[in-house]
Amino acid sequence: MRNKIVILTGAGISAESGLGTFRDAGGLWSQYDLEEVATPEGFARDPAKVHGFYNARRANAKAAEPNAAHIALARLERDWPGQVVLITQNIDDLHERAGHQRVIHMHGELMEAKCEACDAHWEAPLQMLPADACPECGEHATRPDIVWFGEMPYDMDLIEQHITSADLFASIGTSGQVFPAAGFVMQANAADARTVELNLEPSELSGMFDERHEGLASEVVPAWVNRLLAGS
Ligand code: NAD
């Protein structure tokens, strides 16, 4: 019995819900300049452009539905007799909408806004604008609650504690190109967890996993969850 399961998800788990991945051919980074829309410097230069980018992502995410992979992980959280910890790099809310109770959003959340002046957090309106004032302090310092490149991901201490105490670590739908998440499999291996990768194709990190399952998340994730819950 592998008691504690720690799962990392990336953009690939939401691809079949219609949300574009970043690095695949035709992905978001082939359409947008990362430096312009996903860095603090880009936001300082042109906040309207950055808000426009995330307003479009937010509208797409609202229109999307969880797929069979999100639903299978919510079932694993509900039915697994041990602990299941879900860490996602995704900023969409499809895990929650599939019924997952506890999700660590290490790169922030599209549906949340925050104030750079007083650090207040609130539910993001569908359209955020540079002129928006903070509902707490009134400053015009509001931004999407997204961790941009060059910023520190959320909950890193908690994540490290979970990974170093995992019995089983699974990475789902992530290319393994963005640190620190790309380093989690090394930490899990060092802690003697069994490591599993579920991805459409081999990733940069495939050689580091004990077990690999290639295919669509909507197929390989429910099959993996069924095997775990059946005890095999
Ligand atoms: P990525 O685009 O770098 O990699 C996606 C991976 O998913 C690839 O390895 C690809 O082969 C795989 N994949 C594509 N379709 C799949 C499918 N149907 N089933 C299984 N695997 C599939 O994304 P990443 O590794 O998550 O990159 C990290 C960054 O991307 C993070 O910063 C994250 O916040 C951001 N991101 C999030 C979203 C979202 O919230 N939905 C969307 C795009 C990017």
Per-chain topology:
Elements: E1 4-9, H1 28-31, H2 34-37, H3 40-45, H4 47-63, H5 68-79, E2 83-88, H6 94-97, E3 103-105, E4 108-115, E5 121-123, E6 142-146, H7 156-164, E7 168-172, H8 184-190, E8 194-199, E9 211-214, H9 217-230
Parallel strand pairs: 1-2, 1-7, 2-3, 7-8, 8-9
Antiparallel strand pairs: 4-5, 4-6
Helix pairs in contact: 5-9
The structure holds nicotinamide-adenine-dinucleotide.
Written description of the protein model:
There is one protein chain. The protein has helices at about 30, 35, 40-45, 45-65, 70-80, 95, 155-165, 185-190, 215-230, and strands at about 5-10, 85-90, 105, 110-115, 120-125, 140-145, 170, 195-200, 210-215. Helix 5 runs parallel beside helix 9 (about 215-230). Helix 8 links the parallel strand 7 (about 170) and strand 8. Helix content is about 35%, strand content about 20%. The structure holds nicotinamide-adenine-dinucleotide.
**Biggest β-sheet description:** 6 strands, parallel
Radius of gyration: 18 Å
Secondary-structure content class: alpha/beta
Distance between the amino and carboxyl termini: 9 Å
Give the beta-strand count.
9
Spans of 5+ residues with little confidence (pLDDT < 50)? none
- Assembly type of the chains comes to single chain
How big a fraction of the residues is strand?
15-25%
Count of alpha/pi helices: 9
Mean pLDDT: 95
Bound molecules: nicotinamide-adenine-dinucleotide
Give helix and strand order, one letter per element, not per position. Answer: EHHHHHEHEEEEHEHEEH
Which strand order do you get reading across the main beta sheet?
Answer: 3-2-1-7-8-9
Q: Roughly how much helix do the residues carry, as a percent range?
A: 25-40%
Shape: globular
